[in-house]
Specification:
By secondary structure, the chain is mostly beta strands. The protein has two domains: 1-57, Thiol Ester Dehydrase, Chain A, CATH 3.10.129.10; 86-211, Hotdog Thioesterase (Thiol Ester Dehydrase, Chain A), CATH 3.10.129.10. It is 8% helix and 45% strand. The protein contains three helices and eleven strands, in the order ββββαββααβββββ. The protein has helices at residues 91-94, 128-136, 139-142, and strands at residues 2-10, 20-27, 32-41, 44-54, 95-101, 110-116, 151-154, 157-162, 171-180, 184-193, 196-209. Strands 1, 2, 3, 4, 5, 6, 7, 8, 9, 10 and 11 form an eleven-stranded antiparallel sheet that branches. A hairpin with a 3-residue loop joins strand 9 (171-180) and strand 10. The termini are far apart.
């Protein structure tokens, strides 16, 4: 089976420390299954995720009929960039960032190639779908429209739809953020590997000034 949709709800601040993860098949099936997982810290749930997966079949490839998507930027070849000023380190250094269009430190849409430097679990090679999901959560940061020193744009959730299985280590994130009056926003992204598009991601945003 392959995962076609993943949603993660971030329930509260996730500490840097011991995390307990539990997973189960919530809705078993021969052709479609629903998976559920929780992450807990100190006896409290900090995140909850669901994923739909479907049986692999011999279906034909049908390209989209809408407007053509922008061409995929060239494969990464330059040196990785350093975390921009004002961003807390940790995750930023755990990922290789190779900007293709725009820049993380500049407001506006941006396209970056990414590659995980470390596995999620020690001594376990991350699967390509894990690499896509790790990258997808960066859409709001890559395409930020506001000064991170003055504003917070927090995503309480992440949803990713995949139309094919990703492959390889490199994941391309093409992200855009929309912000409207009232404290809400939306970050959307196109997700690709070196072979082309694999899916789309979206994050609802809470916008508020920093105290």
């Amino acid at each position: 089976m392959m995962i076609t949709r993943f949603t993660c709800e971030i329930l509260r601040s996730i500490p840097v420390g011991e995390i307990t993860v539990a997973a189960r098949v919530a809705r078993p099936g021969r052709s479609v299954e629903l998976l559920e997982a929780t992450a807990s810290a100190g006896g409290r749930e900090v995140a909850r995720a669901t994923a739909w997966r479907v049986l692999r079949t011999a279906s034909p490839a049908v390209p989209p009929r809408g407007p053509a998507a922008p061409p995929l930027p060239p494969a990464p070849h330059d040196e990785p960039s350093a975390p921009p000023p004002g961003w807390l380190d940790g995750y930023m250094s755990a990922i290789e960032w190779r900007p293709a269009r725009g820049a993380i430190a500049q407001p506006g849409p941006a396209v970056v190639w990414t590659r995980m430097r470390y596995p999620l679990v020690p001594d376990e090679e991350p699967a390509p779908v894990e690499r896509v999901l790790v990258t997808a959560d960066s859409g709001n940061g890559v395409s930020s429209e506001l000064d991170i020193g003055r504003w917070m744009f927090i995503n309480p959730e992440l949803t990713v739809h995949l139309h094919r299985e990703p492959a390889g280590e490199w994941i391309c994130l093409d992200a855009t953020t929309t912000i409207t009056p009232g404290g809400a926003g939306l970050a959307t992204s196109r997700l690709s590997d070196l072979d082309g598009p694999v899916g789309v991601g979206a994050q609802s945003l809470f916008i508020t000034p920093r105290s």
